[in-house]
Write a structure and sequence with these properties.
Strands 1-2-3-4-5-6-7-8 form an eight-stranded parallel β-barrel, surrounded by four helices. The chain is an alpha/beta fold. α7 crosses α9. 41% of the residues lie in helices and 16% in strands. The chain is built from twelve helices and eight strands. The chain has a single domain, classed as TIM Barrel, CATH 3.20.20.
């Protein structure tokens, strides 16, 4: 089964609204590509101006986070309806930085995944291990737990449409990149885990990204692997080089 590649930029806490518009205008011609899905996941305050700036291009706009309640007394949070009202199609959920700094758990990530599906938003559900966990040899066990809890009560039909992003925490923003073999091994294990939860058809349909210091140099080899269906790109998504990652062939 040929899965369409998805290359998403995670802007993190970068770019004011005016800076965001300037970056979109700079990147628009560079990321033009009919062969892959291109998504800019941007800070909440940037979503509307980025949506306007991206009109008429192949860029789809995503959010970096979302709460699992419809509305209410949750100061500072963003609801799914707020995102869909402005046309957001994707949302990054369970990024390691959210887990580390804001105490998100597998269980809260699962609640967010289910709520995203309720509103027709495609979740990009993140998983990944620390350097200690890798050195202790528990990478696959740890990530299987993240996947199994994150997908609780998600139907097979829903799972087929979502994205899982494997980001080894030790490779995020460090300049260290997992070897192609390491990245492929874990992404294959994720696909196998999805197959155990559901079936082979679901495992073959779900798209799995690699993230963690992806660059224009590393993208072609990474994205050529059988179980890597694109990338979740951090720092490089804020530079012209993102165009080279999108047009990696």
């Amino acid at each position: 089964m040929a899965r369409r590649k998805i290359i998403a930029g995670n802007w993190k806490m970068n770019k004011t609204p005016s800076e965001a518009v300037a970056l979109v205008n700079e990147l628009k011609p560079l990321v033009a590509c009919d062969d892959v899905d291109v998504v800019f996941c941007v800070p909440a305050i940037d979503i509307i101006p980025v949506m306007e700036a991206a009109k008429g291009s192949n860029i789809q706009v995503g959010a970096e986070n979302m709460y699992y309640e419809e509305s209410g007394a949750y100061t500072g949070e963003i609801s799914p309806a707020m995102l869909t009202d402005v046309g957001v199609k994707y949302v990054v959920l369970g990024h390691s930085e959210r887990r580390e700094y804001f105490a998100e758990t597998n269980e809260t990530v699962n609640k967010k995944v289910l709520k995203a599906f309720e509103h027709g938003i495609t979740p990009i559900m993140c998983c990944g291990e620390t350097l200690d966990q890798r050195e202790q040899g528990v990478t696959i066990d740890f990530i299987r737990q993240q996947i199994k809890v994150g997908l609780q009560n998600v139907t097979a039909d829903q799972a087929k449409t979502m994205v899982i992003a494997y980001e080894p925490i030790w490779a995020i923003g460090t300049g260290k990149v997992a070897t192609t073999e390491q990245a492929q091994e874990v992404c294959a294990a994720i696909r196998a885990c999805v197959g155990e939860i559901y079936d082979e058809a679901t495992a073959q349909a779900i798209r799995i990204q690699y993230g963690g210091s992806v660059s224009a140099a590393s993208a072609p080899e990474l994205f050529a692997q059988n179980d890597i269906d694109g990338g979740l790109v951090g720092g490089a998504a804020l530079k012209p080089d993102f165009g080279k990652i999108v047009n990696y062939k």
